[in-house]
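The following block was generated as part of the benchmark described in Methods. Ligand: iron/sulfur cluster.
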Amino acid sequence: MRDSHAPALIPARQLPVKSSVGGGKIFTRQFTGRFRNLRILLAGCLALLFFSTSWVQWNGHQAVLWDLETRQFHVFGTTFWPQDFILLSFVMVIAALLLFAVTILLGRVWCGYACPQSTWTWAFMWVESLIEGDRNQRIKLQASPMDLAKGLKRTSKHALWLLMSIATGIAFVGYFVPVRELVQALLSLQWFSTSAAWVGIIAALTYLNAGLVREKVCLHMCPYARFQSVMFDRDTLVVAYNAARGDTRGSRKKGDDPQALGLGDCVDCYLCVQVCPTGIDIRDGLQMDCIGCAACVDACDEVMDKMGYARGLVGYMSEAMFAGEQTRWRRPRLLGYLALLLVLVGGLLWALNNRHLVDMSVVKDRSVLYRYTSEGEVMNVYRLKITNKTQLPVRYHLQLDSRDRLRLVKHRDIVLSAGDSDEFPVQVVMPVLAPRAAAMLSFDFVLVDSNDPQRTTREAAHFLYPAN
Ligand code: SF4
Ligand code: SF4
């Protein structure tokens, strides 16, 4: 008796393999499998992080907020100021190097499992199949004339896509303006603001990219696809078809001996093509259009299981594996990237730990070079601008570091609230001693954080003095 699910029964080439009845639209088939589950898990976690992080509160503030108005970036109790943005470049270089290292090791796993474009496209495709049915139903629907049923399905699909796009727009803009205020403003119909306009722009881009343009973003717009092949080496694991095992391709009944029929293990069912979100045939070899999502691996594994063959006709393979060699994990380029990553991550941690949490600038009063006090001391006047870069109020103690007998006049501790900045006049005096040759003395203003006396900030200054 014939197995009704056997791949041999799938009418290969009878339905369009990848494109629709018109317009070149790709209709992907639903499938299950371990790599699909892994993608749902990874992409699901990332999407959950994206939608929820901006709602988390920390010390009474939004935990992650890039406040464009004040140009401050708040991350879980730490505030980064424009002067700290060099650290952001560090983070970006580290992210790029990490991507390079992962690409050398595992090909385009970023594209297949974590890239927002792929993640949102998969989510939009899932909604599409929920409303319009499986691949064959969608192809028929596309070809059918417009009637009430088709109109309802199309309207529901686009309405859901729009809702998902608006949610994405709100979540994204919520990292730049306080998300609670943003949602409140949108709910009270305040739609004519810059924030609301940005929600609209991001929502429109999401709808366009994930709903309408989809794989074309990966194929024609993403620069990563262009240079990824340069990063591959003969040990990089990429999704590939084992032609030596699969060819000659051909349909057969379950239980037939392929050798006797002069066939390889590929039953030519085209399932690997029909699940592919970019619509390519992995059996044509490594292609730039392959985003490494492993949908074809899951589809083919299912076919192999049904036929009673070993899995892995399509799978993660390297050039070295095809040549019958062991994949080398210790490769010079990979080790180079890892070493560089280690240095950069170490540097970033050091910079974060030694980051100044207070900013101090000193300007000397230019109207008078110096003056004499009633006690006959020489006085210089300065203006100190101090910025508390933390998210907590801080009391600072000001002192001088000088080899000469300089001292502050009647100076009290400075208290600044979180993120506050203020200017303070400061008087420094020195007793008139024996005549000096130098007309200028160097010293440092030292600001001590009274919560953590080990944390000090210095700023150099000059004291002008009547020379003889
Ligand atoms: S590679 Fe696998 S899924 Fe693709 S046509 Fe051959 S048997 Fe079917
Ligand atoms: S060929 Fe396979 S791995 Fe590549 S994009 Fe298509 S389904 Fe994904």
